[in-house]
Known about the structure:
InterPro entries: Arylamine_N-AcTrfase (IPR001447), Papain-like_cys_pep_sf (IPR038765). By secondary structure, the chain is an alpha+beta fold.
Amino acid sequence: MADSMWQGGGVDLDAYLERVGHRGDVAADLPTLRGLHAAHVDAIAFDNLDALLGREAVPLDLDSVQEKIVRQGRGGWCLEQVVLMAAVLDRIGFTFTAFAGRTRIRTGSRFGPALHVALCVELDGEHWLHDVSFGAYGPHEPVRLAEHARLDDDWSFDLVREQTGEYVLRFLRPEGPVELYGFTTDVRHPSDFEILNHFCLTHPRSPFNHQMVLQRTQPGVRHILAGSTLTEIRPARPATSRELDKDELLTAPADIFGIALAPGDVQALRTVLDGP
């Protein structure tokens, strides 16, 4: 296939499909988009461990992302997962662009930096919000990109549009709607990702470089680990939280989030948890 900025020609599609457990043929259609979305979020966790362990870089080139997430069985944070997903969609033949959103959940602000990146896929004259990398609060399948669009089943979401023109993705919970992020569809390119990646890795205001942040979405349960607090979300029930001790924190990546850590990474994580 011809080269593109999304590097579809360089993705190992068979290895990716095996990693996420997707069976059957793929094509540039809505059933494939839905199937890939669900399989990806079920199999691949949000994982900030490289930043927590003090790695000097979190590479965003496709080869590095595939080595880490596909071959090593790690998770990845938003930008890594978008690089991988975009390459997969490009390889299959989807038409899409990327955009950036301003996270609202946990920040209490609508005006923070636009650090979250997702994709807008065009199919048969409609546009779909395709976001596999927001972690345990994010959608499990694409959401039609239109005012008042709604996704209803065990996990429900909707889109509202504010007077500013910004869309807001909301997670509909028993305790009330949770605003996840606001966004416009202004186009972002892979070169923009590098700036966001540097902020997430190095900036003192980054939420990802000073505590463990792991998240995973599965059909009947969602888990979020922030620092030592593990939150569990189940359909139609209020979220529950508990504190993990050091031993539980060391085993949580594998046991709860399905992240395969090398022995050296486990030891490095133990050192971080032991503190100075």
